[in-house]
Structure formats: structure tokens, C-alpha cells
Amino acid sequence: MSGARTADFGTGALSRAAGLIHTLVTVEALLLLAASPGLAGLLLLGPDPANLPLAAGCLLPLGPALSAALYALHHRTGDLTDLHPARTYVRGWRLNALPALKLWTPLLAWLTVIAFTLTHFSATGLPGWWAVLLGGIGIGSLLWGAHALVLTSLFTFRARDTARLAGYFLFRHPRATLGAASLLLLVAASTALLTEALPALLAAPLLLSLLHSGRPVITETQEDFTA
Predict the structure, then answer these.
(1) What is the distance between the alpha carbons of residues 71 and 151, in angstroms, rounded to a whole number?
(2) Cα separation, 169 vs 152, whole angstroms
(3) Which pTM was predicted?
(4) 20 in Cβ contact with 76 (< 8 Å)
(5) 138, 184 in Cβ contact below 8 A?
(6) Cα dihedral 52→56→57→60 (10° resolution)
(7) Measuring CA to CA, which residue among 55, 86, 53, 56 is closest to residue 71?
(8) DSSP for residue 82
(9) What is the pLDDT of residues 168-196, one digit of tens each?
């Protein structure tokens, strides 16, 4: 009987819950640490739209940090006796930092152009519907970025292939895209109504939700686009 209890240790429901909490807390701490240089810079910037390019530069470290977090959460184990979230996070950062930056950097640049144009829209002389169009393009770009982040974190593709797959999955799996949109809406609402620090403090659970909603994308990529 004692042998059975020993075999069950670390795999029960309570142990799995404890393991999940431990993984989330560890990944959250490492994500904030990896992104801290840029986040510290953001705290020094004022809300002036002229600071948008500087803010984009401060957000550059966030891409690899998010990618490593997705990698660690995807490869987590439910066995309490075999938890190594810190080691897995570091491995994910080492593997994905450069591939993530290849997609994260142009996405940030594109979103900065859109945000700068919208904040100075009255000076452009364009009709109002252009602002709506730009806003829609910005949202679509964010959703594409969510798919691209998941793909580049879990698979080894060339940047252009990841970009094409992310665009393909935008419409191929609308539920996954809707799930990403819901998370973006939650982040935007919590930032606007509460504090901009809240999404950063809840990044690990939000990323775990992104993995869950993106399960069809991950499964199809494994089955149809990897050897």
C-alpha cells in the first residue's frame, strides 16, 4: 500500500494544482525579469505620443520574454516531482529569442506607425473612415502577432514561413483567433480601467489561456507542417 502511495505522489489533483501554481509563479517572475530593462524604460516615458517610437524600443525585450514563457508553459509537466520551470524558461529564451525578435521587431514598428498616425490623425487631412480602417488593421496585426508568437515559440520555422502560417490560421481557425481577440480585449480593458501593470502581473495565466485557445493551431501545425 505504501508503494502505491509513493507511486501516486506528485500526480494527484492537488499535486497537479500545486505544480501549475508553482510553474505560473516561476514563469511570471522570469518573464518580468527578462523584460525588465524595457519595462523600466517605459516607466520613465510620459504619455506624449511623440514617445511612441521610444516605447516601441522599450518593448523589444518583451517579445523574447513572452516567447520563452509560452515555451515553458507548453512544456510544463503535471508531475510535482519533476518540475523545472526555470530551466525550461531559460531553454525557451535561448532557443526562441532571435526567431521571436525577427517577427516581434517589424510588428512593433508597424503598430507604432499605426498608433502614431492615429494620434496625429487630425493633421493628416484624411477622411474619418481612414481612422477606422487603420484601427482595424492594427487589431488584425495584433491577432496575427498572437498566432505568430505561439508558432515561433513552439516550432522551428523560417520567419517568413511562420508569418505565412500565422496569416493562414487567422481565418483557418476562427475560434482560436476569437480566443486571442478576447485576451487582447481583456488586456486593453484592464489597462484602461485599472492599471497598466495588471496585464504584466497576470502575463503567465494570460499566456496559458492563449495556448489553450490556440490548441487547434498547434495541433494542425504538428500534423500538417512538421515532419
Answers:
(1) 10
(2) 14
(3) 0.91
(4) yes
(5) no
(6) 170
(7) 86
(8) G
(9) 999 999 999 999 999 999 999 988 887 77
